[in-house]
Amino acid sequence: MLECYFRREKHPFASYHPEIQTRCVTRVRFVDIREGTARQRSSPAPRVPITSGGYVQTVQTLIELLELPGGWNSYKASPIRKENVNFAVELLARLMRIDTPAPNVVPKVRGGVQLEWHTRGVNLEIAIGSPDDVTFFAEDSRGHEEAVEEELNESTLARWIDRISE
């Protein structure tokens, strides 16, 4: 198993939780060709053909959110659920281009995550309550196109991502 460690100095929640230190583990799968069997030491990491700085930065921030304890907002917020972070990472791997800026990553009090871009005259927000409960809101703040608010539709979402990536 390969491991990499990183620490973000100015994590938005570090002032509340100075003990937060994030560990990122790259997982590998070994295949024994002679025996025709796979020996899995851990689950394989998601494949991203082209990674941008924005994608890597976003993945790091999402991983950091997993370290937030219950009550991270000084009330009764739930810890961020791993399946929501995994879904966000996989969704961004499919949608982000090399020139897509990193979104703002916002933890949600019920264990979800929200990804937001407010750039190039576009407001785009993807809310992940669970992998089965994903919605997005997109609007052209200049009024050139009508706002869209709907359940996950990757082809529509990809067109909005293209607009902020140009």
Main sheet strand line-up:
5-6-7-8-9
**Total number of strands:** 9
Helix content: 10-25%
> Uncertain segments of ≥5 residues (pLDDT<50)?
1-48
Tell me what portion of residues adopts beta-strand conformation.
25-35%
Q: How many helices? A: 3
Q: What global shape is seen? A: globular
N-to-C order of helices and strands:
EEEEHHEEEEEH
For the biggest sheet, the summary is: 5 strands, antiparallel
- Give the mean pLDDT: 77
Count of spatially separate domains: 1
Broad structural category: alpha+beta
Over all CA atoms, what is the radius of gyration?
18 Å
Distance between the termini: 38 Å
Ordered list of secondary-structure elements with their pairings:
Blueprint: E1 2-5, E2 23-26, E3 29-32, E4 37-40, H1 53-65, H2 82-95, E5 104-107, E6 113-119, E7 122-130, E8 133-140, E9 148-151, H3 154-165
Antiparallel strand pairs: 1-2, 3-4, 5-6, 6-7, 7-8, 8-9
Walk me through the structure:
- By secondary structure, the chain is of the alpha+beta class.
- It has one domain (2-165).
- It is 23% helix and 29% strand.
- The chain is built from three helices and nine strands; from the N terminus they run E-E-E-E-H-H-E-E-E-E-E-H.
- The strands form three sheets. The protein has a five-stranded antiparallel β-sheet.
- Residues 1-48 have low confidence and may be disordered.
